[in-house]
Amino acid sequence: MDLNTITAVSHPQTRSDLPVWTPGDAWLAGGTWLFSEPQVHLTRLIDLTDLKWPALTITPGHLSIAATCTISQLDAFTSPPDWLAAPLIGQCCRAFLASFKIWKTATVGGNLCMSLPAGPMISLTAALDGVCTIWKAGGGEQRIPVTDFVTGNQRNRLSPGDLLRQIDIPIAALKRRSAFRQISLAPVGRSAALLIGSFDATGALKLTVTASTVRPIQMSFPGPIDAGTLRTAISEEIPDDLYHTDIHGKPLWRKHMTLRLAEEVRAELLGAISP
């Protein structure tokens, strides 16, 4: 869609080139949402592509995902063999309600910043203990766990002019054994519930609930638990008003599917059923 209120497009190449943020500005990365509907309040786009951030960087402690990394770049990533949780990358990429054209343009950072409950990059990075690095509008940086970054349906911790720079995934999280469950009302519909569990070498169990809730909910247990304990924990941690409602699923059904999928995740991780 043409954005006919735009009067300027800025192309910064370094952080020092970023213009002073003013009302009417918008960051432009993939632009798949930005150009999907009228944006009559906008007058300037700040194009991030010339910053040329490396899409994916492996350090001794982290996998760093640039906010401008596209879904296709992430999906094409070849991980080391000891990253047992690496299949989650492809599983979450395929949880998108998107065509291959969108995959080549949409970005990981854009998915987080849209902060929709069904955002699968939120699911992936939250489940793997991702931490956001934010360039603050007034200077400096802020680091926020993904589980705290998204605060509700299309709400997050960004202030006007803040820019999501990258998401860092600990290598230790990528080495955990994991289980993935997702359900939609339609065969290729938006996720109504997406749960990821992981089991590390110390025996700790972690469950991350997304899509069915308005923000990511993460629960940790020091060791294996039974079905009743898990069900009680979910009921206590997720009050009914945290379940999302829209045409893709009503809260009561989302709650039911959350409890069902959580038990499947628990059983798979404890070896009771096959993946």
Helix percentage range: 25-40%
Low-pLDDT parts are none
Shape: globular
Instruction: Count helical runs.
Output: 9
- Quick check: average pLDDT? 95
Written as H for each helix and E for each strand, in order along the chain, the element string is EEEEEHHHHHEEHEEEHEEEEHH
Strand order of the largest sheet: 4-5-10-6-7
SSE-based structural type = alpha+beta
**How many β-strands, per DSSP?**
14
Assembly form of the protein: single chain
For the report, how would you describe the main beta sheet? 5 strands, antiparallel
Radius of gyration: 19 Å
Percent of residues in beta strands?
25-35%
Distance between the termini: 42 Å
Give the topology.
Layout: E1 8-10, E2 25-28, E3 44-47, E4 56-58, E5 62-66, H1 71-75, H2 87-93, H3 100-103, H4 108-114, H5 120-127, E6 131-135, E7 141-145, H6 146-149, E8 150-152, E9 155-156, E10 163-170, H7 171-174, E11 177-184, E12 191-199, E13 205-210, E14 217-221, H8 227-237, H9 251-269
Helix pairs in contact: 2-5, 8-9
